[in-house]
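Reopening this ticket.

The earlier resolution said the output was attached, but the attachment link was broken on my side. Pasting everything inline this time so it's all in one place.
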Amino acid sequence: MPHLRLSRGRRNAALLLSTTLVASMTTLSTNPAWADPEKAGPANPIFLTGPNEGAPNEIAASYLRAHPADYGVRAMDLSDLAVASSYTDRHNGVTHVNLAQRYKNLEVFDATATVNIARDGSVIFVGDTLLSGLSDNKASGDASLDAVDAVHAAADALDLADPENPRVMSRSGGAAQRTVVSGSGISDQPIPAKLGWQQTDDGLRLAWQLVIDDSSDTHLWNATIDAETGKLLNADDWTTHEDVKEVASNLDRSAPDRSTTLNSAAFGSRNPVQDGSSYQVFAGPAESPNDGPRTLVTNPADGTASPHGWHDTNGASGAEHTTTQGNNVHAYQDQDNNNAADSGSSPDGGANLTFNFPLNLDEHAQNYRDAASANLFYWNNVIHDVTYQYGFDEVSGNFQANNYGRGGNGGDYVRAEAADGGGTNNANFSTPAVDGGTPRMQMYLWPGTQFGSPNQVVVDGVGSFDASWSRFSPAPSVAGLPGHRFVYAGTGCTTAAYPGTLPASAWVSVVDGGTTACTYLQRAQVAQSVGAKAVVIAHNASGSAPVLTGSMTTAPVTIPAVAVTQADGNAIRAAIIAGDVTGSVRKHPNHPGIRDGDFDAGVIIHEYTHGISNRLTGGPTVNCLTGNEQMGEGWSDFVALTMLLDPKFDTADGQRGMGPYVLFQDDRHGGGIRPRPYSRNMEIQPFTYDSIKTGGWLNGTSLAAPHGIGHGWASVLWDMTWNLIDRHGFNPNVYDPWNTGGNNLALQLVIDGLKMQGCAPGFVTARNAIIASDAALTGGENACIIWGSFARRGVGYSAVQGTTARDDNSEAFDTHPSCRGDFIGRAAQPALNTVIAGDAAPMKFKLETNRGLNILASGSPYSRLVDCDTLKTVNPDGSITPRPTPVAARNPGGSHMSVNANGQYNYPWKTDEAWAGTCREFVLTLDNGFQHRAYFKFTN
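Inline output:
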């Protein structure tokens, strides 16, 4: 079977649709090759309907109204559908129609359907969270509270500060009473509010839905407040963070061996903008300093995605900005965590747009801030330009200040905050729900606390003292400040605190700590003003020395500032009082240096992709990746790994870590920040679908939601990517079209799948959307490869998703019936074939013609242990992960697979004596994904 395409078939009777469609419209079977098992039929048509005439929005609504039972609702539930968004993709002609359910002229929050329409009007796929029984639901409540009242209630429920004089900035008419309230000291952005219906256990409640960009923390709250009682009914945080506990558990103790090998793979636009810009960065596909030194990249902007270059905002010739700011992103430092650019923190490339700043990775990250911001700017623009090629464009809600008249809403460039002061060992991305709302990326420093204190104060003749670090100043250098005099200045809050006579030679200030008398920043500013070369702040309480923080709204401090513990401060002061003291403030010789996440492209791409998955799922007017089974972290890891894929470092069955650089690991093969590294080898990455269940991970532990569960989804997509590469080859340039390599195709299918899947997807829904995307893009050419990839990890044809909770799914390892065949002379599944353990078992199958012997997929054939009664792949002890892994088939003696002139193949399978009394499934996969399968029981 050299090439597989899924066949079409018609339903037994045509369905009568709305008169908005042509009367002769016929409907094909609703049982596509990606449908649930109970709906799938033998015909396996590709689309849900045949061609239809009419506008896509009308086709979408009419199709739903003609098939309410297929989506678990009644016709009356679909009587009022509003188009939330609708746009058409350039590369495949698919129109994605996102419909919102309404009741009494008001939106029912989180009740949506995404209907995907082909060029010819065919309905391809529907993803939905429609609510049944609207008229039966006890809808209650009235708008006793206005939008300002709701802001007060939300602030109280979310434990925010009291709103300061909230005022209505705008209000529109209509049932929803759309209102914009001032930020009121609790939100960095004005607060939009609208009325609608919130689903609760007691029925629908009239509610205000608000979006609050938390001024006090890294949260973007979507809060729903009961419009009558002020009770918080629901709250979603639209800021996606890394899992700090999970990251901490994976910190490695070994510092990297920095390679000097240059990355020579082709990576870049085929249509660059010749604006003369250049950037000294860790350029793609290099992930981080682990992959080699920086390279100078010239004119990297893509002429389609960024037609006027990366520094334009007005759509006319010439750059509006010579700093790290432009149409797609503004990259700057936010070390004081006020969600605004620090003074002078957007590096300036000058009129020639030359962004080449010093970098010495042996030093702490605070000493190469401009290089970090330039790298962050480069990578945000690269992600924008690359994903534009795959359909994350203006109409689908991408991030641009100016949309250049190409649809969608502008004004939503990414605010990329380097070395953000909101935390450490983390990163996050906040995505407003509405296209035009400005997202924020926050990248953090990684202090390497596993190596001890980053700095050291050396007092000659006394000893060495561990010291912390400062956000507002440069860091002590490796060389330090040897031979400097030490001067004690009390609180150090004013120049009067210093002795009247200061050393003529270079000296270091030592001052008391605490923030009652003045801030740490003020002490450093005063010390600098009187001529100190560094300032050491002695903590005023027991415990660890603090990390020094302060406002960055004024010109930054230019001398190093560190803190020591109270006890060490007492010892240093005593030495100074006893007589002249010299010493040094230096980077600790045992510390590899504080690292900056802005140099890990994998982390940057990961965070940016949260914005992509949020904008594409359910359309650009909602954020609806909800439920414990949601896979946002998985899409983010997948896009990062696939964009950076480099066969010089990466292999299908080797180990690939996520974020190894920030964890101080040596290379891409480190364990990374996930529960297990990625690999097609299931002994390295053992995830299967039931691993998401509570207690379903290794040793009876539970994968964290969403990060651990998301890493399981990425594991499946990583396998799929390599399987597509095996089929279609690898293209080192991700800027190229989807049909130029298996990796390019994988990116396209996943991004298309995000658009098709609808709100609140689980693994099965998202799988179906990817297969539907392939049907729309290639006619289903890769359906069996995709099915096989999912089936091997338990998201097979018979897998059941249940809800988007984590404990009601059921895994299955079977492929789609259209992708499966039997063996000649062997009983077809589900029958068991009996074989003596240790004997050779000839496995014969027939193709249409003799295709030679190079026809098997990588890793094929294999066998896997199954239960003899249920034929399921389970563990005898009841544990879930790891499941019995696929075991590569062996041949007896020197024999190999053979084929005769008629295309009959024989694979001689050598079984194992140890298998006596057990059962196994034998799976032989062809290079097009088609599988031959059979069950065996082994006897003595």
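Reporter confirms the inline version is readable. Confidence is low (pLDDT under 50) at residues 1-44, 251-265. DSSP finds twelve helices and 36 strands in the chain.
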